[in-house]
From TrEMBL:
Pfam families, alphabetized: Cytochrome_C7
The name this protein goes by in its record: Cytochrome c7-like domain-containing protein
Biased composition annotated in UniProt, kind: Polar residues: 117-129
All copies of domain Cytochrome c7-like, residue ranges: 52-113
Top-level division of the source organism's lineage: Bacteria
InterPro entries: Cyt_c7-like (IPR029467), Multihaem_cyt_sf (IPR036280), Nanowire_3heme (IPR026352)
Taxonomic classification: Bacteria, Pseudomonadati, Pseudomonadota, Gammaproteobacteria, Oceanospirillales
Length: 139
């Protein structure tokens, strides 16, 4: 490995670490707002796995307003009475998951990925996955 290469890899590592720190700093303490949301008003009953909505993943790509004002999503896990007719009609998830802004509705399993029987909820925060645990001080 040349010295230049090694330096390049080091820089990239540093960037990843810095990004993790900055993102972690913005998030602050674990907050339900940033967790994945399991939506299961109908899925279980229809023999589908519950839908999982990764809030954080979307929230870093779009402003709150896009979904909670323009698309009319209420601020409540499971509070929107979403079904597939509405999605195919371009409402809710279907406003983007239409093969243009994001992959289309045919990808059932990408949304219906929950463990069967999981009730509607704001699932555990994703903070733990984003921020590496701090090393413990040794005596
Ligand atoms: C972009 C995300 C997304 C995709 C892709 C998706 N769904 Fe859904 N689906 C949802 C959400 C959200 C709900 C509401 C979940 C609930 O309340 O249980 C839902 C609800 C359902 C329901 C129960 C309500 C109803 O409309 O009968 C069925 C059945 C269903 N989906 C089947 C499917 C099938 C089959 C596919 C693939 C052809 C699919 N879904 C693809 C997000 C998606
Ligand atoms: C891509 C769309 C999208 C964006 C962008 C988005 N949200 Fe959401 N949000 C949702 C969906 C979908 C739900 C769950 C609704 C449901 O289950 O029917 C939700 C639920 C919520 C909830 C309720 C969770 C709970 O505790 O019950 C809050 C609060 C919330 N969002 C805040 C925000 C804030 C603040 C932002 C911007 C920083 C934001 N959202 C950006 C789609 C979005
Ligand atoms: C405002 C637009 C928008 C809305 C509304 C939206 N999505 Fe998405 N979603 C996206 C985009 C963009 C991606 C990234 C697509 C890609 O990587 O090609 C994405 C990706 C995803 C992913 C994959 C996340 C990953 O880790 O790769 C899931 C799961 C998902 N959406 C579920 C949903 C569900 C369920 C809903 C409705 C409750 C929804 N989305 C509503 C735009 C949206």
């Amino acid at each position: 490995m040349t010295q230049k290469n090694a330096l390049g890899i080091f820089r990239r590592l540093l960037l990843v670490l810095l990004t993790a720190t900055v993102v972690g700093g913005f998030i602050g303490p674990a907050n339900a707002e940033y967790g994945d949301i399991v939506i299961n008003n109908y899925s279980d009953g229809a023999g589908m796995r519950p839908a999982v909505f990764p809030h954080w993943f979307h929230r870093i790509r779009f402003r709150c307003k896009v979904c909670h004002a323009d698309l009319g999503f209420k601020f409540q896990a499971g509070g929107n009475d979403i079904n597939m007719l509405k999605i195919i009609d371009g409402q809710f998830c279907g406003a983007c998951h239409n093969g243009e802004i994001a992959w289309s509705v045919e990808n059932c399993n990408l949304c219906h990925s929950g463990t069967p029987g999981t009730p509607t909820q704001v699932h555990q925060s994703t903070v733990q996955q984003l921020v590496a645990p701090k090393p413990k001080a040794t005596k």
